[in-house]
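Fig. S4 source data, part A: sequence.
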Amino acid sequence: MRTDTLQLASELAGRSEAFALATVVRREPPSSARVGDSAVVTPDGEFHGWLGGSCTRPTVIREALAALADGAPRLIGIVRDPGSASGARPGLTVFPMACHSGGSVEIYIEPLLPARRLLIFGVSPTARALARLAAVLDYRVEAVDPEASETLFPDASRLVTSDDFVEPPGSGRDAARCFAVVATLGQRDEEAAWAASRLVPAYVGVVASRKRFGKIRETLAARGATAEQLDRIANPAGLDIGAQTPEEIALSILAEITRRARAGRRRREGDRRPAHDSAPPVPATRTEQAPAPAAAGAAIAREPGPAGAPASPAPATRIEKAPAPAAAITETTRDPAPPAAIPETARDPVCGMSVAATAAGHQADFGGTTYHFCCAHCREQFVAEPRKYAAAAQEG
């Protein structure tokens, strides 16, 4: 490979720009190409490099653009006699050599696409588990929330502290590799779902019960969301694998994203077979079950009361740190049973502060009791160890 071709490929990869790399893997004289010759083809059809003269260029450009469109590499042969037995081999697609001088060349074309982009709205345990698992699968994770931090999301490539700072996909190809998941679990659900749906990514999933999502859908419709936008939102997010823990829910969501992405690729390739995701999403088991008993030790996320608008958001911060392990937290997204009459004031079981229960913006259910918190931090501590704090609260 020529140094200038290698340098261009490195620069494009560094800018997260798509390109196809074409390399000569076999040749027969009198072709002027040599094994190892290479070229870079960009999405606008620009050709950079050398593959044996102008005779091969149009075919390589056309096949490189097709590879960028469907994401699949290919091996092509540009030969003197495409109908000969030597040109017909499994895995090789042959095209006629246009040059009168003859010869033949085989070229391997590999599309190099930017990492798949996953926007995660929220700081819930499910959101954090999703960020960890997505990073392992080579997604470019962007954590979107006013409270997003390097501590909560050590695996994120980017922290975005305001919905207004989220960069929309730059093209149809970018949108096909962009996915969004709303895992706010009661904290600014409508705002996050609105921001995610307006980006029009390849997938939008909302981690919430059907009942809760019904309210979110009504709010989005009132804000002007079209029926098409609303129908594109997957709820419950994830495949039905009986997921309960944040890690299991994250796994089910990434499985659904993978299945839909593969189906989209088949459609782009011209495969007319019915895609697996053509039917409405299958309801996840976790949203149809009754609330877990106290012995299960699971805290149930509740919708918060109204909260004031956050202060002016800080600029988004980029981080490039290696992943760090995080503790597993058990949380569900089921609808809790209707609570008993709410007292005017309640005691935060974590910090002991007295809060106005009727206006509290942070609650969680455990063992049939509704607990109220002064802030999101106390609620997160309770959700992590509900049995511990519930027992302390009962002891007074």
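Fig. S4 source data, part B ends here. Residues 246-268 form the longest helix (23 residues).
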